[in-house]
Design a protein that fits this description.
Layout: H1 8-17, H2 34-44, E1 48-50, H3 52-68, H4 74-78, H5 88-99, E2 117-119, E3 122-124, H6 127-139, H7 147-150, H8 158-164, H9 176-193, H10 198-204, H11 209-219, E4 226-229, E5 234-237, H12 240-252, H13 274-281, E6 285-287, H14 289-296, H15 306-329, H16 337-354
Antiparallel strand pairs: 1-6, 2-3, 4-5
Amino acid sequence: MSDSEPDEELLSLLRQSLGNNGGKAPSKAPNTEVLKGAEYIYNHSIDVALDTHGTKAAAAQIWKLMQEQEYSFETWSKHLLHPKGKNEDTVNFIFLMDLLNFCFWSESSDPQQRFAVEYQGRRWTGYWSLVAAIRRALEEGIPITTPSFWTNDTKCADDLIKHVFRSATSEPIPLLDDRISCLREAGRILAQDFDGSILDLIHRANNSAATLVNLLVTHFPCFNDTATFGDPLQTVHFYKRAQILVADLWACFGGQSYGSFHDVDTITMFADYRIPQMLHSLGCMRYSPALENHIRKRKAIESQGDWEVQLRGCSIWCVELIRREILRRHPDAEVNAILIDFFLYDSMKEKEGEGVETIPHHRTRSIWY
């Protein structure tokens, strides 16, 4: 190269440093579009409304309690049943846990008859029944967290999976066939697209929470949690289980190793049936008379129907407003939607255990939550 010829490599570096990409549009940061959809739902919601004063009061109360309890991502690992290791086995455990983390509510009014898992001398219900069942299976020598096992119809027969999730009561785990389908599907896709490795899936995300969510919902149909809503009709995204997988990895690994995500704050709350219940109890959310009457009578609500979409979307937006209010009052607070969600869920389960629920949770059967 002569002295008069430009150094193209140097010019390229200069363009990048100056934000000039040679005429090319700069690449956009990955985005799940969940928050955008939640705001759209909130703006077009008829049957669910947010109370501004209630939301601000809840933000103050939540932050105060979180400070008093020293609530942080470390709280996740303190739960008795959550895995304590920091290795690939734990990653596989968390993936399975969130692959099947949906629909544990019971039709029975008798707590003693509801689906429960017997483990370590006590009965576990709800989400904890799933975690207990996985731990129990591993202790029984069943490699239930190994992806290649899920596609082996001989060693991992449907009857064995049924045994893994056996109930301590006469009520079986809800949607067992759907759980088996999710398990088989995930095993096949991991083998086809990710060399059978959940670590390969995580590595492809390049430490981006949003990218990992988008990989999950693009490759795995059972994670692609969406609906259509509004006028004009729009596709909105919830991605509850995909997002909580990222959150669980982040919390378990303390933001390091397999839980290191530079954009973890892009994750929203996880739209399920417990958080709307808690937000209503806190005075943040209000329902139309028809919807509230329906919920109080414990009638089923259609999956992906308008009522359900409004409940989920407004919950996401409400937690986002709570997060913003906490940061407005406490600019140095280390808080995100994940921690607020975890805190609200734990609080709601405590209220359930104490029998002080002010309103039932809505009842929707689906694999999405």
